[in-house]
Amino acid sequence: MKIACVQMDIIFGEPEQNYQQVINYLTEAAANGAETIVLPEMWNTGYALTELGTLADSTNQTVELLKSFAKEHAVNIVGGSVSTQKNNGFYNTMYVVNKNGELVLEYDKAHRFGLMDEHIHLEEGDTLGTFKLDGTVYGGVICYDIRFPEWIRAQALNGAKLIFVSAEWPEARIDHWRILLQARAIENQCFIVAVNRVGSDPKNVFGGSTMVIAPWGEVRLDMQKDEGVGYVEINLDEVEEVRKRIPVFDDRREKLYEKFSKSINEVL
Length: 268
Ligand SMILES: O=C(O)CCC(=O)C(=O)O
What we know:
Nitrilase/N-carbamoyl-D-aminoacid amidohydrolase; binds 2-oxoglutaric acid; alpha/beta; six-stranded mixed beta sheet; 9 helices; hydrolase activity
């Protein structure tokens, strides 16, 4: 599978300009033969959280754009995430569409990031971001979610061989981003395709470092601070090879883990 990672800048609080930027990047990636294109987090508005009442997508604009582009160009799109308004609240929502133009995932970020005020302005999601493309199971998570190993493990246990991460991760903690992503790939013996933004907003400078990591932990793509589209070819058979080499999933002791997580709760 040829994957294209869009490491873009996001224009703060300007959805129409960001939609146009994304169309340009999708067009470039499709013209270069990408089969799956991945976008960063909150690419429609950036973290303009106090203005979501007028800026968030409340009309399905994003889904319609992604569906029609995917169908016309026969590409899968992991549409990063956008700010959405639904059920009387605002969400940080990841959409994935397949190459037939069908929506196969709508995932609301499960873990809200307090340092960027998400807990004040956004609702939290309660569903697991697994989905299928051509019969294979994938996972999708958003930024801060990667700090929760049990959340990524849940995806692997539900069959995900590759987990997509969309982010607006600040440069100040980019060493955490790199190490956490590599750890999540190694411990779950899966591919991680993680797309971060570059540029800055009124409060943060973002760290780029979009990466593709193989199930054995090797970094196959590292975009550092380059703005634009990065490409990588991956073969999902590597997942089974690594899982045979060290059979972590067979050696897990679920009941033991449950026993001690209960004990800790009882003590507290
Ligand atoms: O966990 C972090 O350090 C960054 C998380 C973040 O920026 C986010 O979830 O938007």
